[in-house]
Amino acid sequence: MKIHAFSVKPILALLTAAALGIGPARAGGLDDILKGLLKPPPAETPRQPTTPTAPTQPAAPTQPTAPAAKPEKPRDQLLKALLGGNASPEEEARIGQQIAGNLLGAAPLVRDDTLQRYVNRVGRWVSLQSERPDLAWHFGVIDTDDLNAFAAPGGYVFLTKGLYRKLRNEAELAGVLGHEIGHVIRKHHLKLLQQSQGIAALGGFLGRKLKDESQVVQNLIGNGAEIVARGLDKDAEYEADRIGMVLTARAGYDAYALPAVLAEIGHVAKSDKSVSLLFKTHPLPEDRLEHLSEAAGDRLDGLPEGQAGEKRFYRLR
Amino acid sequence: MKPRIALFCACLLATPAFAAPGVMLKDDELKATASAAAASLGRVAKGASVEILARQGGWTQVTSAGKTGWVRILAVKSSAPAAGAGDVLGLVQAGTSKRDPGKVVAVAGLRGLNEEELRQARFNPDELLLLDRYASNRSDAERHARDAGLRPASVAYLPDPKGQQRENRPSSWSDGQ
What we know:
With 317 residues, chain A is mainly alpha-helical. Chain A has one domain (9-38, 73-296). Chain A is built from 14 helices and 3 strands. A 3-stranded mixed beta sheet of chain A has the order 1-3-2. Chain A is globular, with a radius of gyration of 21 Å. Chain B has helices spanning 2-14, 91-94, 115-120, 125-134, 138-148, 161-166; strands at 20-24, 28-31, 40-44, 49-56, 59-64, 67-72, 76-78. Chain B has a 5-stranded antiparallel beta sheet with strand order 6-5-4-1-7, with helices on one face.
């Protein structure tokens, strides 16, 4: 599953060479990425090669100058930073934005303003208990009956309407969001990209010209939102469970709300379609509960009793 | 302290009976009260069926083989779904479509999210903008927490138990077979 055979250095060398070899020169560096960031993303899907998505300067005519002196192109920086494991918060957000936009292409937000604002307040409060309180956190409930929740780099967190319906109180919502926040703050998806897709993407990168950084990002994350269907390794899921439980408790909620959700999900028949993707990409609920039990041991004994927030919980119509 | 706990237990027991079948996820000690310091009433083995009676903080009251006592909440798992709100997506409903059959083409009337759909997904900028509009900020979130009376607690992250075993950390709960 993990690809250790490659080390980063030779890839980077290869990459730099390739980058210099192909692409039309484009002025600007990270600024280009930053500019694109806070604005609405390109209206067309990045895979359509005809649409220019970012303001493009005319290609600098010919003569490659001294390679080292040239400012790196955004796409190269992005790819390099990612493969090197040090994507900046902006680059991280850019990748997350692409994944989030694609996921929303598969399942749009539930059309319920009150619900979405409520989930954002709870999620934001939980995120404030983490070591990355100032990320641009976004939370959303997406319109599908599947039971699942997703995270993308940079602070994007989604849960499905199906899962939301299973929740009984605000603490359980906080627990689910806390698990996803755990993936974000520990950069689990970035690591996944680095380990596997990064290398596969490099193949694609070498094979064809990518017009702009949004294509680079798309190329990195694979097709559409398949990255969220690919699943992280078990340890990442267990870690996110531990973090989710702790963040829930820190936020003043019942620490045992996330385990309660896991137990509830465990009651859904394994053959039920609504959990097939969830169970494919996560350890089974029983195993997750066992892991939490082992991890918690007696460590949470002195914890003040948290709130369930049952009355406050927003219920779907 | 003690009388307060006793009182609290009494309150919990007085709440509507909540007896539900459960199963032990690990070996655990049955405690006389909901406290690590309480007297032991014996052990309950992993896999044992129990009756879940009540909850207090991190503890669950169970009856097992005629004995009633408390185990850590994470040591036991209920073996039936909670009644009520959670059943919307239960199997019963899975087979019946609520939707206009002419409008949505989906197996069993449920709109799912499978791998193929995710792979085919096209970037949706409008939804991303909408998502952005719903975002909350720090002060908004803090106000929500204040209104709700949520009190932040200081809790350390839980270490990976696998790493912990390697360190040979002593622990009172591990059943270490």
